Amino acid sequence: MADPLEPAGTEPAATEGAGAEGAGAEVDDAPARRLGRALAGLPLGPRCVGGLELGLVGVDPFGTPPVARATRARLAAVPDGARVEVFTRFARVARDVEGLQALAARAALRVHVVFATPDRALARALEPGAPTPARRVQTLAALARAGVPVGVVCAPVLPGATDGPRDLRELVSAARMAGARWFGARVLRLPDGPGGDDLRRELLAAAEAWRPEVGQRWRRWYRGGPGPSAGVEDRVLCLVDALRRQYRLACPWEADAPAGAERAPGRSARAGGWDPRQLGLFGADRAAAGVTPGAAAKAPGVIGAVGVASGGERPARGGGAVARPLRASRALGGGRATGAA
User: Fold this and answer.
1) Alpha-carbon torsion (243, 245, 249, 250), positive or negative
2) Buried b vs exposed e over 32-43: b needs ≥16 C-beta within 10 Å?
3) Which domain, by its residues, includes 162?
4) What is the average pLDDT score of the chain?
5) Residue 295 is assigned to a structural domain of this protein
6) By CB distance 3.0 to 4.6 Å, which of 175, 195, 232, 337 could disulfide with 228?
7) In this structure, is residue 4 part of a structural domain?
8) pTM for the whole thing?
9) pLDDT, tens digit (0-9, with 9 covering 90-100), for 138-167
């Protein structure tokens, strides 16, 4: 397996776009970059009430060496027993593995590795400067091997664009094989109320410039407030919950329960115990995602050719586990199931 860590002081912000996972299609991604800049101001998950949250909104706590040094100082000062939530896209977090191990031993630490999409070209546009999805899987595996409590957050899920069953299944599969303990997905919520109007207008305009059909859908779906119409969000949450069950991953937040769903017998919400059957998740989305009761993870992904040695699903010949070869990513904006009507 390739070393998931970089030589000290060299985060591959600009060069990761061309890696082992193959070169994405050459396209004009300026509209997607505009959308990515607007999305950067939105939270990646729910607020951590009574605890410390780093990277939930805005600056990534491990995005640059100076910010990473400040983050180390803040984590070292965390009192015993405190709750700490760290959200990051950068491999630099794995260089602090000893400090994270020590913190996890005395505090309620959770590290969330953030993905917007498994598609390398689209990720490069929506998350400029961030490592490729393949590299993030390697970072996740390095933290998992070290015993750091780590999972995946897919945020924001863009309705009609990155909510396709195949994309979500690829992320959940990669997370499980890399040793993640949980998988969370946050459907896009637009700013609402005083102070949020300008950003809301920019997000809708950027979406229309990127993919006109997506922008038009968003104007309909988000007409009633910050969240999309109930059926749109519930469909994504039900699909994610079914995938979590198949891959035996926990749900990081109780708020991820689909509206109207009931807890499955003998399971807690934190363990992903919401019954997708309450909303009839046995149609095209379930079949497209390859979700079948008791099915093993068999389909390849698009994240990249990554070797992962962790606590994942498939035993390797020499012990441990490896990620199966993942096929090269699709082109930006290429044909894919959007999972939205």
Assistant:
1) positive
2) bbbbbebbeebe
3) 30-289
4) 74
5) no
6) 232
7) no
8) 0.73
9) 999 999 999 999 999 999 999 999 999 999
For residue 89, is pLDDT > 60?
Answer: yes
- Residue 168: count of CB within 10 angstroms of its CB: 26
Mean pLDDT of 86-98: 95
Q: pLDDT over 90 for what percent of the chain?
A: 54
Domain membership of residue 18 (yes or no) is no
pLDDT score at 46: 78
User: Number of structural domains, the chain?
Assistant: 1
Neighbouring CB atoms inside 10 A of 115's CB total 27
